[in-house]
Automatic annotation (TrEMBL):
Signal peptide: 1-20
Keywords: Hydrolase, Membrane, Signal, Transmembrane, Transmembrane helix
TM segment ranges: 461-483
Organism listed in the record: Equus przewalskii
Protein name: Ectonucleoside triphosphate diphosphohydrolase 2 isoform X7
């Protein structure tokens, strides 16, 4: 009789164990048991000098959560920015094909149709739209024709305003560095609310500064109000068109040509043939040129490695003569004093990185940055080439870039030593590039809700723990019983 009960008990126990295990697998704690299925999004960042494609990914079942969108892969489009195809719009579309083909491979085939695809163009296209609006429209139409040929869900090609570009860069930086919301180790969210990071972006044709501010902006064009995860943010932002790295270099070149002397920011021993057409074709330099010039004419210009003259040439880019507000950065633009920590990316990072790693100069303070720019600007062409053999194409322009950055931060935005010590120069957070593209996608896909996310994941986790304990208890009981059965089998006298 007892033998019969025991032999029935064993299979029923095993069944209980199996059931518990099954229950456990049904509970939606996918991150513990299997890799979650992913969703993807693609953003083409059509900058003035080149286009980059970013593919982002996030877990498919947690549309409302955050801290989890990251960069899956990226691709650099060969050739110039789409605005450089003003006279050959179809070439702009064609230029994107190689990266889009990569996207077809990078995103799993069964996800293609559900993957949103965005193209955002920035200051290069803003400039083109200022001078030749019909050419800008044609370029956007051409890239749209190419993008709609792909299976992704294309959401349109747009020119971002300077304000959007600044704010989305700020959103990206604070999202990646978990300033809005943090993901705790047991699976619940909490809001750190220790203050956000300001963002500074230096592109090819414009530069943006964006930071949270307590007081309302005196110029409404500089203020954006955001509601993210139930928190309210008042953000100051401004984009300076024609103050991106390439446009600044072009304006300095035009300035050097006006003096009829050598270029003080170029290294001594370096010279180049300058096409007048190339110098004055931008709205940023048009006013500096002669009224009429032979469009195929070129001038030979050499460098002279003169830091003081270069600094004075750069200082002419900033106008401090008038301000209709209580305080301004430059060119009469309202700006409250910079507060809090900042992250500076894109060309800010590349310039700092060159000073630090190639030149081996300390740049921890503004004073050191100024000294580093002076040292760099004193180098001759052969000295520079010896230091950075691989960088030939950009090498003559680092002096101007560093001098401009130093003046923009100190005199332009008004960073003092204390404020500058809170600036970090960084191009990525983890594996994800810092720029406007991620913030743009987060906004357009509603991945950042206005209200705080619930604690759904936290409850998932506790039910998982309960089941785990249950599973373990059942298993233990089964083992104990098995052991007893084995013992009683050894001593037949007990029956
Ligand atoms: C996020 O969750 C809230 C409430 O749970 C819901 O009302 C809202 O529609 C969700 N948003 C998205 C984008 O899924
Ligand atoms: C070009 O600029 C005009 C005037 O600011 C604007 O209305 C238009 O939308 C812009 N074009 C594109 C394609 O964004
Ligand atoms: C413009 O310059 C080119 C080359 O320097 C020269 O051949 C041409 O005759 C010039 N045209 C005019 C209109 O001066
Ligand atoms: C500075 O701006 C003022 C007002 O906009 C203008 O009158 C002046 O010519 C500018 N100065 C320079 C050097 O561009
Ligand atoms: C994000 O998108 C919403 C609409 O979905 C819009 O109202 C809001 O202004 C956008 N945020 C920014 C920073 O542009």
């Amino acid at each position: 009789m007892a033998r019969k009960v025991l032999s029935l008990l064993l299979p029923s126990l095993l069944a209980a164990v199996g059931l518990a295990g099954l229950l456990l697998l049904c509970v939606p704690t996918r991150d513990v048991w299997e890799p979650p299925s992913l969703k993807y999004g693609i953003v083409l960042d059509a900058g003035s000098s080149h286009t980059s494609m970013f593919i982002y990914k996030w877990p498919a079942d947690k549309k409302n959560d955050t801290g989890i969108v990251s960069q899956h892969s990226s691709c650099n489009v060969h050739g110039g920015g789409i605005s450089s195809y003003a006279d050959n719009p179809s070439g702009a579309g064609q230029s994107l094909v190689e990266c889009l083909d990569q996207a077809l491979r990078d995103v799993p085939k069964d996800r293609h149709r559900g993957t949103p695809l965005y193209l955002g163009a920035t200051a290069g296209m803003r400039l083109l739209n200022l001078t030749r609006p019909e050419a800008a429209t044609n370029v956007l139409a051409a890239v749209t024709r190419t993008l709609t040929q792909y299976p992704f869900h294309f959401h349109g090609a747009r020119i971002l305003s300077g304000q959007d570009e600044g704010v989305f860069g700020w959103v990206t930086a604070n999202y990646l560095l978990e300033k809005f919301i943090k993901y705790g180790w047991v699976g619940q969210w909490f809001q750190p609310r220790k203050g956000t990071l300001g963002a500074m972006d230096l592109g090819g044709a414009s530069t943006q500064i964006t930071f949270e501010t307590a007081s309302p902006a005196e110029d409404p064009a500089n203020e954006v109000q955001l509601r993210l995860y139930g928190q309210h943010y008042r953000v100051y932002t401004h984009s300076f068109l024609c103050y991106g790295r390439d446009q600044v270099l072009q304006r300095l070149l035009a300035g050097a040509l006006q003096t009829h002397g050598p270029h003080p920011c170029w290294p001594r021993g370096y010279s180049a043939q300058v096409q007048l057409q190339d110098v004055y074709d931008s709205p940023c330099t048009a006013a500096q040129g002669p009224l009429t010039f032979n469009s195929s004419a070129s001038i030979s210009l050499s460098g002279s490695s003169e830091p003081a003259l270069c600094r004075s040439l750069v200082s002419q880019l900033f106008n401090f003569s008038s301000c209709h507000f209580s305080q301004c950065s430059f060119n009469g633009v309202f700006q409250p004093p910079v507060t809090g920590s900042f992250i500076a990316f894109s060309a800010f990072f590349y310039t700092m990185d060159f000073l630090r790693t190639v030149m081996g100069l300390p740049v921890a303070t503004l004073q050191q940055l100024e000294a580093a720019a002076t040292t760099l600007c004193s180098q001759t062409w052969s000295e520079l080439q010896a230091r950075a053999p691989g960088e030939r194409a950009h090498l003559p322009n680092y002096c101007a870039g560093a001098t401009f950055m130093q003046q923009l931060l100190s005199r332009g935005y008004g960073f003092d030593e204390r404020a500058f010590s809170g600036v970090t120069f960084q191009k990525k957070a983890g594996d994800t590039a810092v720029g406007w593209a991620l913030g743009y996608m987060l906004n357009l896909t509603n991945l950042i809700p206005a209200d705080p996310p619930g604690l759904r994941k936290g409850t998932d986790f506790s039910s998982w723990v309960v089941l785990l304990l249950l599973f373990a208890a059942v298993l233990l009981a089964a083992l104990v019983l098995l052991l007893r059965q084995a013992r009683s089998a050894k001593s037949p006298g007990a029956i």
